[in-house]
Amino acid sequence: MIFSLLVYAAPHSHQGAETAYRFAVACLAQGHSIHRVFFYGDGVHGATALAAPPQDEPNLPARWQALAQTHKLDLVVCIAAAVRRGLLDANEARRYEKPGHNLQQDFELSGLGQLAEAAIVSDRLITFGA
Amino acid sequence: MTLHTLNRAPSNTALLADCLRACSSGDTLLLIEDGVYCALAGQPIAWPAGVTLCALAADVAARGLDSRLASNIAQADDAGFVQLCCEHTRVISWY
Amino acid sequence: MSTNKRFLIISRRPPYGSSHARDALDTALTTAVFEQPVSMLFLDDGVYQLLQAQQPAGIQQKNLGATLSALPMYDIDQLYVCDSALRSRGLGPDDCLLPVQLLDSNAIAQLIRNHDVVLSF
Predict the structure, then answer these.
(1) What is the pLDDT of residues A52-79, one digit of tens each?
(2) With an 8 Å Cβ cutoff, are B24 and C109 in contact?
(3) Going from the N-terminus, what domains does chain B have, and what CATH number goes with each?
(4) Does the pLDDT of residue C109 top 90, yes or no?
(5) C55: exposed, middle or buried (Cβ count in 10 Å: 0-12, 13-18, 19+)
(6) In this structure, what CATH number is given to the domain that contains residue A85?
(7) N or C: which end of chain C has fewer CB within 10 A?
(8) Do B90 and C117 touch (CB under 8 A)?
(9) What is d(CA A48, CA A100) in angstroms, rounded to the nearest whole number?
(10) Which chain B residues are closer than 8 Å to C115 by Cβ?
(11) What domains can be seen in chain C, in order of their start residue?
(12) DSSP strands (E only) in B10-51
């Protein structure tokens, strides 16, 4: 079955961000495919490369990246939600003349249309909210 | 049939009411995160008829609720969560 | 994209205090651009989004009510409201900035069964 995930919860502020990751792992372990993981609202904070949690706590952006590399996941971050909250890739940093960029590798900024497309082509869309 | 997930404690009465109102007979309600507190024995919740009730096992264990669940609540592990999504045609998240 | 799915966007938070209402609306508008049939259902404090005379300039936000008013131009004209959510707040259809259909509990469950994808904010 083809799944897509909508992550609307920010890591550390809400458990939903972690639940989404666990769901993705369980999903892939059963042989299902994940068409896209879409980060929206405060969920975009799950894509920062600058998170530095204590060593005995999970680093969700790093774990998503590792999962994406193993399973070729499409990790898409809502660009409108992201740039408002100061989450930029190199292109957006240049466009807005900001001193740096902080999007974790293997994530991509794109429009809300990527959520609609994911919902259309996937068998199931699961939201992890806050 | 619909799988509903609910992730808030029962003190969030309006959310719980909206979720229960939206359930049809044959649906499943999976309690996750703080939603597992709805699964405690003795909660004065009028569960709708014909709705299967489950709680996410990791969230139950994390909160020390293993021996405190009402008898009508089954537990599902993460794989079970995925399985429930497959068995229902749509999934609604109440949060 | 040939596949057509019936989308239901549930919006149950009030406007302005958090981004939920705006995000629900943006999702509805974007999905409609993809030529999918979109309905919206307002529950709980989400019904406050429908109040007329919103003037959010003083809190540096865009007028959500004005965007809601534009929904029919995007072919989003199936707008539903939980009857008891409206009445319990002392409101009626005349207070809403758009024509809405009132639903009781049974009708809400039925509405959900009639849609393929349900997104809740």
Answers:
(1) 999 999 999 999 999 999 999 999 999 9
(2) yes
(3) 2-94 (3.40.1260.10)
(4) yes
(5) exposed
(6) 3.40.1260.10
(7) N
(8) yes
(9) 12
(10) 90
(11) 7-120 (3.40.1260.10)
(12) 28-31
